[in-house]
Amino acid sequence: MPAVATLTATKGYAQVSAAGGDGGPCTVSTGCGPGLICCNGICSSTCGGGGYAGTLVALSTAPLGGGTTPFISPDLVGANAAPGKSGYLVNNAGQGAQILAQANTCNNIANSQTDFLSTATPITVGTTGQRSFGSDARGTIFQNNTGVVLAAPLAVALPAISMLSN
What we know:
Blueprint: E1 4-10, E2 13-19, E3 25-28, H1 33-46, E4 52-53, H2 56-59, E5 88-100, E6 112-122, E7 132-136, E8 141-144, E9 161-165
Antiparallel strand pairs: 1-2, 2-3, 4-6, 5-6, 6-7, 7-8, 8-9
């Protein structure tokens, strides 16, 4: 069974939690990427043939042929455009080489790829949040204390960009 993720954010602190496919918790409350890491990991192993989902739409669409639960909650589908989710724009973009063609994934929405970039960026820095967050298939959470969106490849670039956890 896939995971369902939710996001809450206030003044630079973002939280994503997801229920894992085995019913166990998949919760991290230090940045926005980890919940999407968990959901993308479940999607990779159950839907993408080892590849990661390339879009929020792919993560929010239930598997065809009997699946009823998407990998993330439907309210995150449009969270990459205003009004976002809880003051943040949340995005997931496939990166790297194609693993499976769209037609061969469990929900026929997008190709699966070798990596992904999940980001959460405050809509208005200083009002809806201060820091931006990003993560990828390595599972490391990066933060940018200026609130600027993080881009691939994620790497430390002090003083603004640092690892929040790994």
